[in-house]
Design goal:
Layout (H helix, E strand, L loop, with lengths): L11 H9 L4 H20 L4 H10 L8 H10 L11 H17 L4 H9 L9 H12 L8 H10 L1 H18 L6 H10 L3
The structure holds 2'-deoxyguanosine-5'-diphosphate (DGI) and fe (iii) ion (2 copies).
């Protein structure tokens, strides 16, 4: 894909190169599969393809940052201090969106919000945010049992795919006795609860 330069001065190859420098090859391959799926969903649901590509390539940009660096940013940049009670699973989207802006120079709010929400979802999500949230869950490398159903829903109805993913992520987290971030619960109440 040829970028228009509206959202980043980098070419797609330059952006890929910068992202790959911050993660293992295994995770970078996941990022490329998320981009592939995000582009497929963006075409189907009439979302800007360039924004989908950029958001997908950068969504896990901060996934391998040291915890100390992330905690430092939470404190110095005025993020909700409750975040410190969680881990990188929750930080990498929220703080990651800040790093994508400051280190990669991407300023588009829709892209940054899609990165920010990609793990927890939110009550209100743009179509781009839904595409990234769902593409991350159903990309071809994912293997958990319910992914087959999630892929079907992603193909048929983006909102039903968001709801299904939210429900099954929460079920998974409860089974693991993980701490639930309040925004994850808000997403559940909005998208799943009767
Ligand atoms: O970064 P990825 O592994 O590609 O995927 P992700 O960003 O969607 O999710 C990262 C992890 O975060 C995943 O194992 C699910 C988990 N997660 C989602 N919501 C919550 C959560 N973990 C905790 N502890 N609490 C949550 O509310
Ligand atoms: Fe992630
Ligand atoms: Fe991911």
């Amino acid at each position: 894909m040829i970028y228009s330069k509206k959202y980043t001065t980098l070419t797609r190859d330059e952006l890929k190169e910068k992202v790959s420098q911050h993660m293992s090859d295994k995770r970078f391959q996941h990022v490329l599969r998320v981009e592939k799926k995000a582009l497929e969903l963006a075409k189907r649901y009439d979302v800007d393809l360039e924004k989908a590509s950029i958001a997908a390539l950068t969504h896990d940009y901060a996934k391998e940052r040291p915890d100390e660096e992330m905690i430092g940013l939470i404190k110095s940049e005025g993020f909700d201090l409750d975040l410190i009670n969680y881990g990188n699973a929750i930080w990498h989207g929220i703080v990651g969106s800040f790093l994508v802006k400051t280190e990669l120079g991407i300023n588009d709010e829709d892209i940054l919000t899609a990165i920010e929400l990609h793990t927890t979802g939110a009550c209100e999500m743009s179509e781009l945010a839904k595409v990234i949230y769902v593409a991350d869950y159903v990309e071809e490398g994912r293997q958990f049992p319910v992914v087959v159903k999630a892929r079907e829903l992603a193909n048929d109805n983006l909102d039903l795919a968001v709801s299904f993913e939210t429900k099954h992520t929460l079920l998974y987290l409860i089974n693991q006795q993980s701490r639930i971030y309040p925004k994850t619960l808000e997403t559940y109440n909005q998208w799943v609860a009767q």
